[in-house]
Amino acid sequence: MDKIIQTIVNEFNIKQTQVENTVKLIDEGNTIPFIARYRKEVTGNLSDETLRDLSERLNYLRNLEKRKEEVVKIIDEQGKLTDELLIAIGTAKTLSEVEDLYRPYKQKKRTRATIAKEKGLEPLAKIILEQKENKPILEIAEEFVSKEDESKPSNAEEAINGALDIIAEDISDNAKYRKYIKSACYREALIETKAAKKDEKSNYEMYYEFAEQINKIPSHRILAINRGEKEEFLKVKINKPEEKILNYIEKDIIKGNNQFEELLKTCILDSFKRLIEPSIDREIRADLTEKAEEQAIKVFGENAKQLLLGAPLKDLVVMGFDPAYRTGCKIAVIDETGKVLATTTVYPTAPQNDVKGAKEELLKLINKYNINMIAIGNGTASRESEMFVSEMIKEAKHEVYYAIVSEAGASVYSASKLATEEYPDINVSLRGAISIARRLQDPLAELVKIDPKAIGVGQYQHDVNQKRLNESLTGVVEDAVNKVGVDVNTATPSLLSYVSGINKTIAGNIVKYRDENGKLKNRKELLKVPKLGKAAYEQCAGFIRIFNGDNPLEITAVHPESYKVTEELLKEIGFNKNDLLNKDTLKEIKSKLASINIEKTAKELQVGELTLNDIIKELSKPGRDPREDMPKPILRSDVLKFEDLKEGMVLTGTVRNVIDFGAFVDIGVKHDGLVHISQMSEGFVKNPRDVVSVGDIVKVKVLNIDFERQKVGLTMKIE
C-alpha cells in the first residue's frame, strides 16, 4: 500500500478503500462539496469537514515526500548518504524532522566552525572528541599552529578554541540531540512572559508576570502573547529543563574522567547557549504559533459557517438602519427580493438630536412601503438608535419589529468595487444600510460579498497566517453556499463564484448570459454559458436551483445524473415529477416515500442506498432551504438599557461569537455579555462549540455587572 495512503488510513481511522477513492476523486479535479454530496458511495459517506481535512493532510504528506527526495538527492551528491541516514529520512514524520536530519549537510554561511575548518582544525576536533590521547592537549594543539602561515592558528589556545567551535556546531547539528531537546521541552518547558516596560498600562497586564507549561497553554493565550510581544509590551522566554538537556548530551559525548572532560563540558554548554537554544526557541515558538493559528482558523471557520447559514427572513420589506452620530443614520428600504425602494439619512442621535424630524420621515417610509422589519447595525450609536427605533415603532400603523444585525464588514463592502457595480448611483455611505437590511433577509447571499475575515466572528484573525486563513474560509463559504444551493436566476456573481465548479469568470459569464437571454429554464442551458464546459457542469449542476423552469427536479439538489432513477422512483409510487409542484400530491408522495424499503428499492433501481436516501429527502421537501432549521433572529419591539440590568435577571440572547474560553451573547444592551466556559453547563465543558454555535438563541442569567467598564458576565446555568 502507498505510504501516504496508509498514513491517512491510520490517522483518520477510516478504511483503505475510502482513502484511495477519495484521493482519486481529488486528483481528478472534483471539488470537496461535489464529492461530499454526490459521491457518498465512493467515499463511504465522508463529511465535507473530513474531506477537507483529508485533502489538506494529503497535500502536506505529498510535500513531505517531495522534500525527502530533494534532501536525499542533495546529501547523495555530496557522497555522504549512508544507509542509516536514508532510513532516518524515510521514516521522518514531519518536515521539521527532515530539516533536522538535513542540517549537517546544508550549505552554511561562514561561521566560527567553518573558519576553524579552513584553518585545518578538524583533525584536532576529532582527537578531542575521541578522548584517547594521553599527551597534554596543549602539546597536541601545537602541531596545528604556525607562526609563519597566516591561514593557521598562531598559538595552541586559538587552535583548541577553533576545534571546540567545530565540535559545538556538530553538536548543534546532531538530529538525535535536537529531537531529545524538543521532546524534553514539550514535556517540561514553560513559556514565561514579563512586562517589557514596568508599570505600563495595556491589555496584556495579566501576562506581565506569567508562566505556563507549553504543552498545556491554550491557543488564544499563545496568540495574545505573540501580539503583546509584537506591540512591545511583553518579553517572552522559553524556560527549558537545561540541566537535564546538558546531562543527556554530556553522557553521550564524554567518556569517563579524562583531560578533555572540562573542555567538552564547556563546549557543550557553548553549543547549547549559542547555537541550539536560539534555534530551538524559534522552532518551538513557531510550532506553538502554527498550532494556535490552526485552532484560531478552525474556530473562525466554524463560527463563520454558522453565521453564513443563519436563517433568512423571507417575504419581508426591510428597513436597513446604519447608526452613526455626527454624519447621521443611513437608511435603506428594500423589498422582498432585495431591491432598493428608498434611501435617506436621518439625525436622531447626538449632536443634532433631531428625534422628531427623524421619526416623521421614517414613519412615512414605514407606512408607505408597509415595512415589517427594521435591521439595526450593531456598531457606533447602535443602542441609542435602538432606543429611538423602539419608541418610533409604537406609533406605526401596523406591527413593526426590529433586530440587531452584525454590521461587521459593511463599510468594507460599501467602498468595494462590487458595491459600486451593484449600486453605481447610490452614495457609498448609504450602501452599508442596504447591506445590513439584506443580511437580515438572506445572510448567505449578502455575506459572500465580504472578505470572510471582515465578518467579525473570529479571534486574532489578523494575527494568523493569512494564506491559510483565506484557504480555510474559502472552503467554509463554499460548503455553506453549496449546502443551501443557489437560485441561478437571482444570484449575484459573488454568490455564484462559490458554487462547486464555478470560478469568478464563469460566474460573471452566467450573469451576462442571463441578462442577454432572460431567465434560464433548465440546468442544461448552463452549457451554453461561455467557458462552462462538461466538467464544470457536472460539478455545479446539482447545486444550481431553477424555480418555475422546465423541470421540477431542478428546484431540488437531485443531480442530473440521477434524474432517470428519480423519475423511476416516482413512477414506482404512482407519481411523476410534475406532481412535486402540487401541495396536495406532495403530502402523498412524502407519505409513500417514507414507507419504501431502501435496501430493496436501491437494488431494483441500481442505485446506492446513500444516494437513494438523499433523493428521497429532496423529493419529500422539494425546494426546501436547509437554513429553515437554524434559529431565527430575535425580533424585538422594546429596548433594554445597560442600567436596567440586575444580577439574577434571566434574558434571551443571540450567540454572536464563540471563542476558546466561552461565548459572547447579545442580550440587547450596548455590549455583548460573556458566558465563560465554566458557566456553560453544570458538567465539564472541554470546548464551547460543543454547547453553542454562532446564531444560537440561548437563555442566560446575569451573573455580574461591571458598570464602569460596561461588561456583563453571564451564565447558562439557570436552573
Protein architecture, described:
With about 725 residues, this protein is α/β, with parallel strands linked by helices. The protein has six domains: about 5-105, Orthogonal Bundle (Arc Repressor Mutant, subunit A), CATH 1.10.10; about 110-300, Orthogonal Bundle (Tex N-terminal region-like); about 320-440, YqgF/RNase H-like domain (Nucleotidyltransferase, domain 5), CATH 3.30.420.140; about 485-545, Tex RuvX-like domain-like (DNA polymerase, domain 1, Orthogonal Bundle), CATH 1.10.150; about 550-620; about 640-715, OB fold (Dihydrolipoamide Acetyltransferase, E2P) (Beta Barrel), CATH 2.40.50.140. It contains 29 helices and 15 strands. A hairpin with a 4-residue loop joins strand 14 (about 695-705) and strand 15. Helix 1 crosses helix 2 and helix 1 (about 5-10) crosses helix 5. The protein is globular and about 105 Å long.
Number of strands: 15
CATH topology of the largest domain: Tex N-terminal region-like
SSE class: alpha/beta
The description of the largest β-sheet is: 5 strands, mixed
Low-confidence stretches: none
**CATH architectural arrangement of the largest domain:** Orthogonal Bundle
Overall pLDDT metric:
90
As a whole number of angstroms, the C-alpha radius of gyration is 33 Å
What is the end-to-end distance?
55 Å
Number of domains: 6
CATH top level class name of the largest domain: Mainly Alpha
Can you say what the CATH homologous superfamily of the largest domain is? Tex N-terminal region-like
Write down the overall geometry.
Answer: globular
User: Helical percent range?
Assistant: 40-55%
DSSP helical segment count: 29
Q: Strands across the major sheet, in which order?
A: 6-5-4-7-8
Query: Beta-sheet strand percentage?
Result: 5-15%
